[in-house]
Amino acid sequence: MNxxxxxxxxxxxxxIELSELTSSASPGESIFSGSLDVVQAVKTKLTxxxxxxxxxxGDLLNMKANQIFKLDRMxxxxxxxxxxxxxxxxxxxxxxxxxxxxxxxxxxxxKNA
Length: 113
What we know:
- By secondary structure, this protein is mainly beta.
- It has a domain of 65 residues: SpoA-like (Surface presentation of antigens (SPOA), Roll).
- It is built from one helix and four strands.
- The chain has a four-stranded antiparallel beta sheet, with no helix packed on it.
- The protein starts with 45 loop residues before the first strand and ends in a 7-residue tail after the last strand.
């Protein structure tokens, strides 16, 4: 069957022999060696969720400028602070100059090991 693409000559597969990995009694030193300094400057994005609204597809298709959707949270409710989709803290919306900000009000409780 010809789908309009020219057939390319493919190299035959090569057999690769790998040595067996043996477990060691001493696994070695941890990558971070007890210090997180190496990852301190890594950037990540936090997302603040103010609330949700459930609407029909019809409502979305008929949306107009200046239309308001009521969210599921009250004005005084805390907002969720997410990291990679997981809630890592809760806070309160505040104004910082001409920007929104979040005052952290609740941090996760430490788990007992």
